[in-house]
Specification:
With 100 residues, the chain is α+β, with helices and mostly antiparallel strands. The protein has 4 helices and 4 strands. Helices cover 32% and strands 19% of the residues. The longest helix has 12 residues. It starts with a helix and ends with a helix.
Length: 100
């Protein structure tokens, strides 16, 4: 029962995209940010305008396929057989947690 109540409590405190302040309420843990040691964009994806944020168009078994924002030098951008995917810990959490 405690797990159910905790789940409901968490769902109710998550910011909603309809909320005008949604993007200001997005929180990425310090642990995840510290794992993104190869970020050469100074976490611009966490800025208010989400500059340089690649669009996730598909997620399959924890692999996030993206439409690249054009930064071919991104250390987290990988291409296999014409498909571009992202393994940036921050980008993955943004999508998994907030569907951004």
């Amino acid at each position: 029962m405690e797990k159910v109540l905790e789940s409901i409590k968490t769902e109710n405190t998550m910011p909603k995209k309809e909320d005008p302040e949604f993007y200001r309420k997005v929180i990425i843990s310090e642990k995840v940010k510290q794992a993104a040691t190869k970020c050469n964009k100074n976490f611009s994806c966490l800025s208010e305008n989400r500059e340089g944020l690649c669009e996730v168009f598909s997620c399959f078994e924890c692999v996030h396929f993206v439409l690249c924002s054009g930064d071919e030098n991104c250390a987290y951008r990988h291409q296999i057989k014409g498909r571009v995917f992202c393994d940036c810990p921050v980008r993955i959490e943004l999508y998994d947690k907030y569907k951004i």
